[in-house]
Design goal:
Strand order of the largest sheet: 8-13-12-9-10-11
Distance between the termini: 20 Å
Helix content: 25-40%
Structural class: alpha/beta
Strand content: 15-25%
Largest sheet: 6 strands, mixed
Order of helices and strands: EEHEHEEEHEHHEEEEHHHHEHHHEH
Length: 359
């Protein structure tokens, strides 16, 4: 019997992560999360190296010696709003797009599902909760195992979602998990953290200067959460600190800033991450209140796990709880960091397995 596969994709603003899930392997999501090394079928490609998503998929098939006809379905988790009934998808933070109809034609299957990347991240949270080796707790509190969950993650952009596990909501079936993705990273940045209040004028100037010098067609300068909590956001904060210190703004790459802070203990890089984590604490608090996330807040994405050594946990806790009328509620909500880089692919695998099971 010829082997069949589900194509899984987690496509952000920088990376294209792909994997093939064999047939009806319902434990594939677990394997992706539990891995110490990449599974044989998992690949990561840089968007900048491929003109289209299909080109990257073709390279995956060539690498693995798999024919497209062996794929019976695909789940593509994408960084941007997915509109029901719309064939063409455009990414939020990268000038690329694709058509679902073209992928269906290329893969020769009607089972091509496009979901938001934070719908995928949310779907995997009930699973990752059972894997303490894939979680780091940065604010410890009892939480409510039956409660709603907030998910957010700084990467190329900032993803946000709400997760309602079985039993958390009377509208959710007893055996189902409901995930509501959003574009919360584009919400205007509210400054209730003193460090951010003091930096706001310089942040605005840094943002305007950065976008004036960029090729991005979006030249707007409204400060959003994403303008701090993302790779670009780290650059924007560093530029603002330069301006505050009376220097011309410079915007080192996120990797360079991380190296400068962790390895070289550069004062400006360290302060950049201090501002980043202050705003992250505020964002976690806001997500907890928006979704009544008594089940906890989970942070995903690539930036936070890599830079956890720069986090002041007591400072994080103080900002997280700093809400006049909601301190008691927030004090009971744990905050965890998901340390697996494959959580997006795992969520796509959970979605694929649900399709297989429902047949």
């Amino acid at each position: 019997m010829t082997a069949t596969y589900w194509l899984l994709a987690d496509v952000g603003g920088t990376n294209i992560r792909l994997a093939l899930m064999p047939g009806e392997d319902r434990l594939f999501a677990d394997k992706l999360l539990e891995q110490q090394q990449a599974l044989a079928s998992e690949r990561r490609y840089l968007w900048s190296s491929y003109p289209t998503l299909q080109n990257a998929i073709e390279v995956l098939f060539a690498d693995l010696g798999v024919n497209a006809s062996a794929v019976v379905g695909a789940v593509i988790a994408v960084a941007g709003p997915v509109v029901a009934g719309k064939d063409h998808f455009e990414f939020t933070n990268v000038d690329r797009g694709f058509r679902r109809s073209e992928l269906k034609s290329f893969l020769k299957t009607d089972q091509v599902y496009i979901i938001n990347d934070y719908q995928a991240q949310g779907m995997v949270i009930p699973l990752v909760r059972t894997m303490p080796n894939r979680l780091t707790t940065i604010y410890d509190a009892p939480g409510n195992p039956m409660g709603a969950i907030g998910v957010l993650g700084p990467g190329t952009g900032l993803g946000v979602a709400a997760v309602y596990p079985p039993g958390s909501n009377p509208m959710v079936k007893a055996e189902a998990t409901l995930v509501v993705p959003g574009e919360g990273g584009h919400v205007a940045l509210g400054a209730r953290v003193r460090t951010v209040q003091e930096l706001l004028p310089f942040m605005q100037a840094s943002l305007e200067a950065f976008r004036f010098n960029s090729t991005d067609s979006d030249k707007s300068a409204t400060l959003r959460y994403e303008d701090v909590l993302s790779g670009f956001g780290l650059q924007c904060v560093h530029g603002a600190l330069c301006l505050r210190n009376g220097r011309a703004p410079i915007w080192p790459s996120p990797d360079a800033l991380s190296s400068s802070a962790l390895d070289d203990h550069d004062p400006l890089a360290l302060e950049t991450f201090a501002v980043f984590f202050d705003v992250l604490a505020q964002a976690c608090s806001d997500v907890a209140l928006q979704y009544l996330s008594s089940g906890g807040v989970y942070i995903t994405g690539g930036i936070v796990p890599k830079n956890l050594g720069l986090l002041n946990r007591q400072r994080f806790a103080d900002i997280f709880q700093d809400s006049w009328r909601s301190q008691k509620f927030l004090a009971q909500i744990p905050v965890h960091v998901v340390t697996s880089s494959s959580s997006g692919l795992s969520g796509a695998a959970v979605f694929a397995a649900s399709i297989v099971t429902s047949r």
